[in-house]
Specification:
Layout (H helix, E strand, L loop, with lengths): L1 E3 L5 E5 L2 E5 L15 H14 L4 H14 L13 H10 L1
Antiparallel strand pairs: 1-2, 2-3
Helix pairs in contact: 1-2, 2-3
Length: 92
């Protein structure tokens, strides 16, 4: 289960473990809108789980996907490619 909290990150619960996934901070002047960020988070989380990544990495991937949408409008203009999101998820 994931509870998304926008700029405060998310809380993830899995098999009795609970952890907080921090948000990836962007300067306010770079944020255009948040439409689609939640959808990108869900898609990122599902992608990570389907390829058998640990939940923590899946949450980082999902957070990177959501963050990448914030710099454009409509939720898809700035969604990063998977290879970029994978790199970000490994850095966390």
């Amino acid at each position: 289960m994931a509870i998304k909290r926008g700029a405060q990150g998310s809380i993830i619960a899995d098999s009795g473990r609970v952890f907080e996934q921090p948000a990836i901070k962007l300067p306010e002047d770079e944020i255009v809108e948040s439409i689609g960020a939640g959808d990108a988070f869900h898609a990122g989380m599902i992608t990570g789980l389907l390829v058998d990544w640990p939940v923590q990495r899946s949450a980082r991937f999902a957070t990177a996907a959501a963050t990448s949408t914030l710099r454009g409008s409509g939720g898809t203009q700035t969604l990063a490619y998977r290879d970029v999101l994978e790199q970000v998820s490994l850095e966390g």
